[in-house]
Amino acid sequence: xxxxxxxxxxxxxxxxxxxxxxxxxxxxxxxxxxxxxxxxxxxxxxxxxxxxxxxxxxxxxxxxxxxxxxxxxxxxxxxxxxxxxxxxxxxxxxxxxxxxxxxxxxxxxxxxxxxxxxxxxxxxxxxxxxxxxxxxxxxxxxxxxxxxxxxxxxxxxxxxxxxxxxxxxxxxxxxxxxxxxxxxxxxxxxxxxxxxxxxxxxxxxxxxxxxxxxxxxxxxxxxxxxxxxxxxxxxxxxxxxxxxxxxxxxxxxxxxxxxxxxxxxxxxxxxxxxxxxxxxxxxxxxxxxxxxxxxxxxxxxxxxxxxxxxxxxxxxxxxxxxxxxxxxxxxxxxxxxxxxxxxxxxxxxxxxxxxxxxxxxxxxxxxxxxxxxxxxxxxxxxxxxxxxxxxxxxxxxxxxxx
Length: 402
What we know:
Blueprint: H1 3-34, H2 40-67, H3 69-89, H4 94-121, H5 128-145, H6 162-182, H7 198-206, H8 211-239, H9 243-262, H10 264-271, H11 273-291, H12 297-325, H13 331-354, H14 356-386
């Protein structure tokens, strides 16, 4: 397959899967409430989406390493079609909506691990940062487009047009299935010994010098984004900041994160991966620590922009580092291990730091999150000492189309 076409298919796949996910998740919440479910059930809905990733991530990654990525992409798209169909024809049953959410979680999991494994397995050393930067930019486009489905016409003042959104997401899932059939799996790398079995292969990966530090840094970075999104409105409410200005801060964070990912490759080439990773996380930590101070709203908007630009580089750079630390033939498992670690961090860390709000107010959450990111910067520095086993730009025998 033409290299540019292969790249385009994977990036298109990333845009579509994130559009479906970020369109369906809030719509399912509306559907549960519309069906008479309580607000407490929304927490169960979150768990129904997250639990499949924690349970199935490692087996999925191991199977991808053995059978190739395309089967995972096809299975993921099929699960998304099932999720949309259940939501659309479930008769407004809360139990069916929970089942649809589980299928959505499984479909998103299989699709994302397959995409990341393709990027990792078809990129030569020295190009990981640039390719993962482009990949996460495409994912961000989908994450921006998905919530726009809530604005489709036909709903009420309180509820968006549920059936229309589920229909659109179902149609997009069929498109995703079509794209998946055209995506070619990367070349298989033969493995032997303990790497043929999942648990010994996971243990071998975790013994890789620097990998645990990279996983910790990535999970703390993503948890900080969740905390920022959840607690910035509370900070605005506490300080009397208009909702429109809070929205502007959130938009600035999102746009600057997308923007920074386009230039990750050049930044790494000029400054070096370790320096970019450590200083971007440290800059993110400093921005959040300053949010705890009673600053003018114009300075808070500037800090949100700085945080967005800096934090936007962290996710793709931890992806690229884990891909480089893992040996060929285990990168699908490494990506799934990263995803499971991130989901665990996104579950436990916000809960722990959110408890600070009861003691120190919302400012305490930003203070605690900034300190957490300082720890992530330390983890990133340690990874930097362990990585880079080959000079940048030296291929390792794989294709360079992605």
